[in-house]
UniProtKB/TrEMBL annotation:
UniProt key word Phosphoprotein: no
A molecular-function term among this protein's GO annotations: peptidase activity
Protein's name according to its UniProt entry: Clp protease N-terminal domain-containing protein
Stored InterPro entries: Clp_N_dom_sf, Clp_R_N
Domain of life, source organism: Bacteria
Domain annotation Clp R: ranges: 2-192
Residue stretches spanning the membrane: none
Swiss-Prot/TrEMBL keywords: Hydrolase, Protease, Repeat
One of the GO BP terms on file: proteolysis
Amino acid sequence: MFERFTKDARVVVKGAVEHCARTGARTVEAEHLLLALLDREASRGAFALASLGLTERRESVTGALAEARRRAGLSQADTDALAGLGIDVPAIVSRVEEAHGVGAMSGDRGTGPAEGKGWWGGHRPFSRGAKKVLENSLRMALAHSDRHIGDEHLLLALTTLPGVASEVLADHGVTHASVTRVLYGGGEAKAG
């Protein structure tokens, strides 16, 4: 499948691996793909994000992603659902962090560069969610009759899958419909 990725899409995938390594995470997550997309300039995905005002709110996006990481990767929807069952996620996070330090539930501790490469020899595998984004990016390209998978297809895939990345995007006004409108028409400027 990677032979169908454009240079921009490959840069995003590599950037996601770098974000993963920088944070010390054990696996590359969909959130790392989103952060790598935010790093891009002069690509179709970057055009869509800029058109929708997300690049100016990068700090808000990274803050929301960091907060979700503190909740062990639970989206706000997951947190709300658990609250409906009487489980107070913020209280649990607070108690765990009191005992083990801030970020203890993120799964990132003890895997950073200072701690060594870990049992996997430095290779960070893609999580099930990140793999699903990559798979769905192919579907997005095919749905729009595009021959290659670009970073815009990665962005579209991120908006369609449930989880933290799509929730954060939606909270910032970036939805599948809005990205599609910017990229493929419907009254907005098209990315070229």
